[in-house]
Specification:
Elements: E1 5-7, E2 13-15, H1 22-30, H2 39-52, H3 57-62, H4 64-70, H5 76-79, H6 84-91, H7 100-120, H8 123-128, H9 149-160, H10 168-177, H11 191-202
Antiparallel strand pairs: 1-2
Length: about 200
Amino acid sequence: MTDDCLTGSDSVTRCRWPGNDKLYISYHDEEWGFPETDNAKLFEKISLEGFQSGLSWITILRKRENFRRAFCDFDLEIVSKFGEKKIKALLSDEGIVRHEGKIRSVINNSQRALQLIEEQGSLAQYFYSQSQPVEDGDCVKKSIPSQTERSVELSKDLKRRGWTWIGPTTLYAFMQSMGVVNDHVAKCEIREMVERERKKLFLT
């Protein structure tokens, strides 16, 4: 065990932040940092990062199935057509985070995402164009930043495009989750698995 790693009861050494929570470990080992190219899944990720603002990620993770149900699996075409009646229903849904600003932001951003897809071909095409196969100093960072110059630039660009609730900290968390950067620490056994998948994506 090191300061930034934890060896679990399964003898796997991984980033410390999942602790011993089974749901968190599953997310860390199977999702966090692995590339994703599906539009709906990417939109889910960026939307949930927005809902997480001011809360812990495990809180959102435990409510994720409720969010998927409430937002129709984050189908862009469906969510983009949500109106006031649906917003009222969402504000009464105890299974999700009932924050009107964040809910309206998801609807707005679904519309902006459709525009981005029309322009760029896919959300993946846009977001991964912000990356490189290996980020400078990824595995030797002394500390994981909350935002970077790249996430600041990306936030500004999305805001120019009409997206909301999309600050640089939210964007960096999204970049981590979808593998734009690989922030698994150097001794985490999942790190190399993530890096292999990232290289496959960037070299195709």
